[in-house]
Amino acid sequence: MTDKTIEAIKNGRNPAAQELFELVNAYDITMLSIQNRNHKTLTEMEVNYFESHKSEYEFGQLNTDTKCIIDQSDILSTESKWLQEEDMIHIKCCLSDGGYMNLVIFHASSGQKHTASKDYYEVGLYELNELLHKTSGDKSEYRCSIVRVNNKFGINMRMIYPKQTFIDMENDDTNGELSIEDDVNFLKIAVMDDACNRFYQKDNDESVEIVIMPYSEPFMEIRMLFEKLN
User: Taking a C-beta distance cutoff of 8 angstroms, is the pair 15, 9 a contact?
Assistant: First the structure.
């Protein structure tokens, strides 16, 4: 659906409002702004998820309480444009009070989320913990070969063959704490439960990839690659 929507925008067609809004779920960052009838900005925020409810549209930041809710009846019309030179998609909505809602999607040609691919599927905390257990012991089935930690604003950390990757499930304060360590870096982050974090998995013939989107860090990803051992 995402590719069809993008193709329609490129060709000057105008997809339905909900199809346009679903693009927020496919990209890393979208800038949402609400303007009054004089184009004065009243609200501006970065979002990376969209949900449609019975009478409302919800835009927000993953794993946080930051959100913007718009009544569906308040949206009178939508139009979209592919800005090729800026590599952006601009979605403009006319609102019933005379104002506007704008959605600007950055890096439109390359900024789609990896987890938007059908190759990734969502898993739970206990499934992740089970995989990590298979990296230890005399008969380990996997080895963690690389960990990348980045957010969409430039932070990038890489660990090669970390010495340990495990979840402390006995921590009462966090209900699960992920620890990753190599010779230089040490990362410890509360992974809590499925309601607070998102975990995705991608299986290949020789490896397994895990993507973690941690609680309260809406634009951060932890990517872990595990090699299958013979």
Answer: yes
